[in-house]
């Protein structure tokens, strides 16, 4: 059973999606939930089906005290690296919260201080705390929606299915068609990669 909060204060949970992708943004969400928040399905978004995530998103948005979403796009990822981009996405998502907060809980083991707000990193936090699980669902659904949108522009990569992750199909398409403005040039896009024509 997921816990409602770590500390009995105004606390935001934050998580990101898309860190291991070859294309598209890394997307983060930050969520402040009320202390009595409950949903029998809510869990780490990676453990949920697409349909369950889709049904959870409006419920979370309707019942959260506040939530924020942020994308960091490939050009910035290539400039500052994916770890820094993931943390920047979480900071920007926290910036989007409309309520003041006293504490931040972060999925994973890496974070940089946000202003003067205390934080705690929690490995597998999205399977331990409701606010991080909620943030994981929002980050994943907003990022998936973005990838489905840009799929229309470049359907040969099948982003509506693989969401930019390094599947065999995605890598075969990169080999055949080259890369797009949505690809992360600093990533190893092909297993045998020596050079790519940017």
UniProtKB/TrEMBL annotation:
Keywords: Cytoplasm, Endonuclease, Hydrolase, Manganese, Metal-binding, Nuclease. One of its GO terms (molecular function) is RNA-DNA hybrid ribonuclease activity. Its EC number is 3.1.26.4. Manganese or magnesium. Binds 1 divalent metal ion per monomer in the absence of substrate. May bind a second metal ion after substrate binding. CDD domains: RNase_HII_bacteria_HII_like (cd07182). It is found in: Cytoplasm. Its cofactor is Mn(2+); Mg(2+). The keyword Transferase does not apply. A divalent metal cation binds at residues 15-16, 107. Pfam families: RNase_HII (PF01351). It catalyses: Endonucleolytic cleavage to 5'-phosphomonoester. Residues 9-198 form the RNase H type-2 domain. Endonuclease that specifically degrades the RNA of RNA-DNA hybrids. PANTHER family: RIBONUCLEASE H2 SUBUNIT A (PTHR10954), RIBONUCLEASE HII (PTHR10954:SF18). Belongs to the RNase HII family. This is Ribonuclease HII.
């Amino acid at each position: 059973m997921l816990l409602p909060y770590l500390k009995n204060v105004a606390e935001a949970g934050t998580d990101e999606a898309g860190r291991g992708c070859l294309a598209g943004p890394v997307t983060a969400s930050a969520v402040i939930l009320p202390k009595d928040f409950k949903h029998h399905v809510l869990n780490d978004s990676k453990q949920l089906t697409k349909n369950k995530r889709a049904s959870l998103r409006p419920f979370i948005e309707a019942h959260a005290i506040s939530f924020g979403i942020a994308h960091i796009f490939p050009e910035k990822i290539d400039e500052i690296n994916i770890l820094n981009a993931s943390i920047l996405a979480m900071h920007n998502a926290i910036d989007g919260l409309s309520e003041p907060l006293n504490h931040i809980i972060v999925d994973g083991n890496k974070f940089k201080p946000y202003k003067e707000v205390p934080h705690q990193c929690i490995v597998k936090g999205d399977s331990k705390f409701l606010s991080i699980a909620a943030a994981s669902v929002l980050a994943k659904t907003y990022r998936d929606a973005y990838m489905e949108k840009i799929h229309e522009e470049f359907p040969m990569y099948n982003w509506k299915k693989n969401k930019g992750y390094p599947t065999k199909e995605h890598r075969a398409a990169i080999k055949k068609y080259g890369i797009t403005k949505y690809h992360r040039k600093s990533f190893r896009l092909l297993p045998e990669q020596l050079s790519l024509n940017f």
